[in-house]
Design a protein that fits this description.
By secondary structure, the protein is mainly β. It is built from one helix and ten strands; from the N terminus they run βββαβββββββ. A seven-stranded mixed β-sheet has the order 6-7-8-9-4-3-10. Strands 1-2-5 form a three-stranded antiparallel β-sheet, with no helix packed on it. The protein is globular, with a radius of gyration of 14 Å. 30% of the residues are buried. One of its GO terms (molecular function) is carbon-sulfur lyase activity.
């Protein structure tokens, strides 16, 4: 039985996740702003082994991150929704854009990252840990 399911805007790409997320955070980096089209992206991290695409096949776009790692964005070629991110530095983890989850009521981000790049007022009033860049040891936010 899946833990949760999701889809792109048009429904051409659908997925399910069988395990619990290992992390959730709001990312304010420029890359997440540009690729999501929003002030920031709420990202849900899952194990690649727990994610199954049940319908469709997303297109992919790759680029180099500030870290030098290769980022792979997966999106629907029909409606343009970005569903997943992959990072060559963490090959066993896939990032799911929270807005694509059918029932995101469980999504509670653990931190704001790249706050130094946040749009004005984007993090005002949040009571979760906030880091100007990537936390020195981001693994503290990952559960096994």
């Amino acid at each position: 039985m899946p833990e949760f399911k999701g889809r792109c805007l048009c429904g051409a790409i659908q997925y399910e996740v069988t395990g619990k997320p290992v992390n959730m955070w709001n990312c304010h980096c420029t890359d997440c702003q540009k690729s999501s089209g929003a002030s920031y992206a709420t990202n849900v991290f899952v194990k690649v082994a727990d994610l199954t695409i049940t319908k469709g096949d997303p297109d992919r776009f790759q680029h180099k991150a500030d870290s030098g790692n290769t980022m792979t964005k997966e999106y629907c070629s029909n409606c343009g929704s970005q569903l997943f991110n992959g990072n060559s530095g963490r090959p066993a983890i896939k990032v799911i854009r929270a807005g694509t989850i059918d029932d995101p009521s469980f999504v509670v981000p653990r931190a704001n990252i790249y706050a130094s790049r946040a749009l004005p007022a984007a993090i005002e009033g949040t009571e979760i840990p906030t880091f100007d860049e990537m936390p020195p040891d981001p693994s503290v936010f990952f559960s096994s």
